[in-house]
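Reviewers of the previous submission asked for a worked example of the structure-prediction workflow described in the proposal, so we include one complete record here. The input consisted solely of the amino acid sequence. No template or homolog information was supplied to the procedure at any stage.
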Amino acid sequence: MSNLNSPIPTVLDLEAAHDHCRRVTQAAAKNFYYAFALFPEAERRAMCAVYAFARMADDLADEPGEPAAKAAALADLRARLERSGREPSTDPVLAALADARVRFHLPLAPLEDLLRGVEMDLSVRRYAGFDDLRLYCYRVASTVGLVTIEIFGYQDPAARAHAEDLGIAMQLTNILRDVREDLERDRVYLPQDELARFGVTEADLAAGRATPAFHELMAFQARRAREYFVRGERILPFVRKETRYCPAILQTIYRRLLLQIQARPERVLRERVRLSTTEKLFWMFWLWLRHRVAGA
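From that input alone, the workflow returned the following structure tokens.
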């Protein structure tokens, strides 16, 4: 989890549990926290609880240790998640998440699929083709969308497909941004058949060689992510106006990030591409005006 050393609250200390999740989100995920900041309190708390759970699972998979020990820790987390829906939990994240599940009728299945996606990182370090990668993206990202649209509120079941697509678009963007960092951990998420098709080797990536073939590969990957964004952003009219701002800012921040990668793909071989705080705040303010003042 986060390195925040706050005491574990009692089962009845929901205020402390939700505050813990807020601080985890604020410290570890500025993009998400910006999107949650102007939510009504109950919705903001629920979003932070979902994020903190995803962070907890991800950290269990990425921390040092043997894969078998990590798998056991994730299995234990899955069991505690399931029990938290029936009995009180002393874990601050699970206590806050259980509260959010009750308040917003959050489904359990996507949270369990999220853990299956995180478990894939314990054994899968390469993906043969996009179908395999898409399953991973669904499990680690679309599942979060399928949970959070229950917090946003919607009536038409078609919203779920758009939530899945937006999650995949965001995860594909993360993969393009993190090429260098992932390679340092012996993980390559770019599909192996597409690396071969464009003539890009892992040695090229490790050496930071931004060849013409690399640029063509990245342009292809960016086009795919953009197609998922086009489908994913269609979720906006489906969710309540008072919560629409959140998916709007998330997809905007990630699309702007994708545009930066498209403009200079060689950057991902030497640094982590980021949006500046100023740019994030600009888009926050612009979308706030659009969704709250103009009623879009």
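The chain has two domains: 1-106, 124-296. We consider this example representative of the routine output the project will generate in years two and three.
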